[in-house]
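stage 2 :: seqdesign
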C-alpha cells in the first residue's frame, strides 16, 4: 500500500502532493513501482495534529480519489469521517482506512452499504494528545481486544468477514516499548483470521531506535521493520518508499 498524503502538514511528505494533478501523477508512479493499493489521506494524524473539517478533507481528497480510480488504480481513503468515506466510495475508492477504528457510528454501515473493505486501526486517544502519556495495563491484550470487538461490530453491520483488515496502529498512542511489544506479538493479531495491515514507514520510533531525526532518512529501519512484520504475519505494508520496499520483499521472499 503506497502512501499519498494530500495534506500540507503530514510528518514526512506534507505539502509534496498538495496539488491534485501532481498527486494523481505520484499515485500512478507508486503503482508503476509495485504498489497494489494507493492510500489517499487528507488529514494528517501525526502526533499533535489538529483535526481538519470534513469539507476541507473532501476538497483535498475527492479529485485525487476520482482521478486514480478512473485510471483503474485500487484506492483506499484514509479517513475517520463517514461523510468523507461515503463520498470517496462513490468516487471509486474500494477500501476505507479508518485510523479511529470505527468510532464514527455511521462508518460501518457506510462501508457495508458500498460492499467495500475496511481497515480497522487501534488508536489510544486522538492525534492531538495521543503521545502525551499512553497508558495500558497490557498493550497487546488491550489492542487485541479492541480490534476483535470492532471486527465483530463491523460484521454485525454487514461487512464481509474477509473484507475486514486489522491494524495495531503503530505510533498511535504508544510508547517506543509499546510499539515494540505489538510488533513482536504480531503473530497473535494474525491468528484473529483477518488480514493484518502494518504502518511503520519512517515513523518516529524508527528514528528513536536509530538516532535519525529526518523522517525521509529512515528507509533502512522502515524496511527492516516491514520485513519483520511480514515474517510475523502482516499481509499489507503501508509505506512511503514503494520501490525500495518491493525490492526488499522480492529478495526476502525468495529466501524465506
Ligand atoms: N499511519 C499513518 C496514517 N494512516 N493508517 C493505518 N491503517 N496504519 C497506520 O499505521 C497509519 C495510517 C501516519 O502516517 P502518515 O500518513 O505518513 O502521516 P500523517 O498522519 O502525518 O499524514
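stage 2 :: out
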Amino acid at each position: 500500500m503506497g502512501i499519498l498524503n494530500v495534506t500540507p502538514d503530514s510528518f514526512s511528505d506534507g505539502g509534496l502532493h498538495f496539488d491534485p494533478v501532481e498527486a494523481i501523477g505520484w499515485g500512478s508512479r507508486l503503482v508503476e513501482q509495485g504498489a497494489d493499493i494507493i492510500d489517499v489521506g487528507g488529514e494528517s494524524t501525526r502526533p499533535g495534529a489538529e483535526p481538519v473539517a470534513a469539507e476541507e478533507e473532501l476538497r483535498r481528497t475527492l479529485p485525487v480519489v476520482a482521478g486514480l480510480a478512473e485510471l483503474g488504480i485500487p484506492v483506499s481513503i484514509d479517513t475517520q469521517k463517514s461523510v468523507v468515506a461515503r463520498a470517496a466510495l462513490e468516487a471509486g475508492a474500494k477500501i476505507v482506512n479508518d485510523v479511529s477504528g470505527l468510532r464514527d457510528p455511521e462508518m460501518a454501515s457506510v462501508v457495508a452499504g458500498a460492499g467495500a473493505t475496511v481497515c480497522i486501526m487501534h488508536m489510544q486517544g486522538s492525534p492531538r494528545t495521543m503521545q502525551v502519556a499512553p497508558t495500558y495495563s497490557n498493550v497487546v491484550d488491550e489492542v487485541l481486544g479492541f480490534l476483535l470487538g470492532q471486527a465483530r461490530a463491523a460484521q454485525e453491520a454487514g461487512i464481509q468477514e474477509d473484507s475486514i483488515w486489522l491494524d495495531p496502529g503503530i505510533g498511535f498512542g504508544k510508547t517506543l516499548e509499546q510499539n515494540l511489544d505489538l510488533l513482536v506479538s504480531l503473530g497473535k493479531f494474525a491468528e484473529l483470521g483477518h488480514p493484518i495491515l502494518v504502518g511503520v514507514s519512517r515513523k518516529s520510533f524508527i528514528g528513536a531506535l536509530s538516532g535519525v531525526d529526518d523522517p525521509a532518512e529512515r528507509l533502512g529501519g522502515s524496511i527492516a521493520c516491514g520485513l519483520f512484520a511480514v515474517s510475523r504475519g502482516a499481509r499489507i505494508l503501508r509505506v512511503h518508499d514503494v520501490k525500495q520496499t518491493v525490492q526488499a520483499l522480492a529478495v526476502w521472499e525468495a529466501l524465506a
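stage 3 :: structure notes
- The first strand starts at residue 2 and ends at 5.
- Residues 139-156 form the longest helix (18 residues).
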